[in-house]
Amino acid sequence: MYPPKLEAIINLFESLPEIERRETLVSYADNAKKQEPRPGEIFNLEDVRKDEECADTVGVYLQVDDEGKAHFRMTLGPEVQTLTRAMTAILCKGLDGRTPQEVLELPSDFVTRIVGAELVRVRSQTIYYVLTRIKGICKVYLDRQRMAEVA
Amino acid sequence: MTTSPTQYAHPEALVDAEWLEKHLNDDGIRIIESNEDILLYDTGHIPGAVHIDWRSDLQDQVIRDYIAPEKFSELCSRNGISPETTCIFYGDKANWWACYALWAFRLFGHEKVKILNGGRDKWKTDGRPVTREVPKFPQTNYPVPKKRLDKEIRAFADEALAQSKAGQPLIDVRSPGEFKGEITHMAEYPQEGVLRGGHIPGAKSVPWKTAANDDSTFKPPSELAKIYLEQCGLKPGTDTVVYCRIGERSSHTWFVLTYLLGLDNVRNYDGSWTEWGNKVGAPIEKSA
Question: Do B37 and A81 touch (CB under 8 A)?
Fold first, then answer.
């Protein structure tokens, strides 16, 4: 149902007691900076903006390789919450190598399995925001592909 | 009360970062971090600080209310807090949740409370030390508070309505857009499920940020007096009710009015707009 890399992350989090779950989320959040674009990387699409529902600017960068597999990079402003940072690192890793169509079809119900019920609350709903943005850039990519095929 | 004071009414209710850094290991104090970002404490906090979460620690998990006095006693005891402990609160978002936690501690009658001026943001910006080490303190035996000060510092919806009908001061500390009813959530925040926009009839709009500098510290006494006493017309001895969406931003203003300006009879309507904006039959104004 989920991409294997993401499934492995979900299984890991579900096996952790609450304290270790928090520690692992913080560890992923610490690694969010490693998901930033690297010098020389070229992307098919870049989407950098600040939406009302997010506290700071979030950038999503999509690269689709010759085999049609998607690779993501992201940039986060300093005001972005820790959970959102963690989810950024998790999704960049967990969705790496899937096709844009597979990413678009991914259900979002895994988020609570990773984060846990205790940490999901109204004011932390922006953890879904990163997934929404990743899906958004995949949709734009696919729409452009279809338009190019029609043309 | 002078309208141009040169010092806060209760200067002892504030500590600055420089003082705190020199007193981290003092006996008789407990540093308490309280944030909106649930994992922020875990990413690094002031050495010796404990974490108290506004929802899982201070609120009842079933009913929309605060914990029972027995639970407050347990919370304090496991954090090594006694009634004589001076609790110094700080947190993110210019101390919104720190003020909220302080207000909740006052609900249970804990008297020795202070705010770290500038909160977490200023502490970090100043380059002061942080750690991920979670401190352990000897368990105390905090006595179960005999009551909560709901009558004294908290307002409920019917009391906010009475305040409105009597033309008594009601301060809406939300953003102007929320006050006018143009938006039903805070800018940059997800929806918190409010059906109606606007404000309680008769409320004045004084956004919480009016009381804060850009570095999250509180504005000086003379400026606060100008805003709340001169421009807003608040007076000592008059019942005043403050509200926002869920009671955290209004806790910030409640702290300013109560401790920095020394107004008595200020109550926080913590049900705030997430109650009022959904309440059947609650009157609403949408004017500017």
Answer: yes
- The answer to whether residue B1 scores a pLDDT higher than 60 is no
B78 with B18, same domain: the answer is yes
* B24, B135: one domain: yes
Q: Do B43 and A81 lie within an 8 Å CB cutoff?
A: no
- What are the tens digits of pLDDT across the range B233-285? 999 989 999 999 999 999 999 999 999 999 999 999 999 999 999 999 999 99
- pLDDT at residue B111, rounded to an integer: 97
Task: Write the secondary structure of chain A as one string of H (helix), E (strand) and C (coil).
Answer: CCCHHHHHHHHHHHHCCHHHHHHHHHHHHHHHHHHCCCCCCCCCEEEEECCCCCCCCEEEEEEECCCCCEEEEEEECCCCCHHHHHHHHHHHHHCCCCCHHHHHCCCCCHHHHHHCHHHCCHHHCCHHHHHHHHHHHHHHHHHHHHHHHHC
Q: Let me know if residue B5 belongs to a domain.
A: no
Measuring CA to CA, which residue among A18, A8, A12, A119 is closest to residue B35? A119
Phi and psi at residue B226, in whole multiples of 5°?
-65, -45
Identify the pLDDT of residue B95. Answer: 97
B182 with B269, same domain: the answer is yes
Q: Band the pLDDT of B4: cuts 50, 70, 90.
A: confident
Window 157-216 of B: residues touching A by CB (8 A cutoff) are 187-190, 192-193
Residues of chain A positioned with their CB less than 8 A from the CB of B192 = 122-123
Is some CB atom of chain A closer than 8 A to the CB atom of B55? yes
Domain that holds residue B64: 11-149
Regarding whether B74 and B42 lie in a shared domain, the answer is: yes
> Residue B106's CB: how many other CB atoms inside 10 A?
22
Amino acid identity for residue B168 in this structure: Q
Instruction: For residue B189, list chain A residues with Cβ-Cβ distance below 8 A.
Output: 53, 123
Active-site annotation holder among B76, B87, B99, B244: B244
